[in-house]
Design a protein that fits this description.
With about 70 residues, the protein is α+β, with helices and mostly antiparallel strands. It is about 65% helix and about 25% strand. A two-stranded antiparallel ribbon has the order 1-2. The termini are far apart.
């Protein structure tokens, strides 16, 4: 009975670890593309000689971007 319980605990641990790894990977991918998008937006506005108005929320990764003429 004890061996069966240990095997069950090991499987639960493996499933939880896998789920955690997937979520961390998805979160890191989203952050990478969020920062890459911010960089591309600001660079393109600077190349157009515009004024950058950027409001961000790093927790939710929402943003409001405007490029106005100087």
């Amino acid at each position: 009975m004890k061996k069966r319980s240990q095997t069950y605990n090991w499987k639960i641990t493996l499933v939880v670890t896998t789920i955690l790894l997937v979520f961390v990977t998805l979160y890191m991918s989203k952050r990478y593309f969020y920062h890459k998008e911010m960089r591309l937006l600001t660079e393109s506005c600077m190349n157009a000689d515009g004024k950058i108005i950027l409001e961000t929320n790093d927790l939710t990764m929402d943003y409001s971007f405007t490029c106005e003429d100087k």
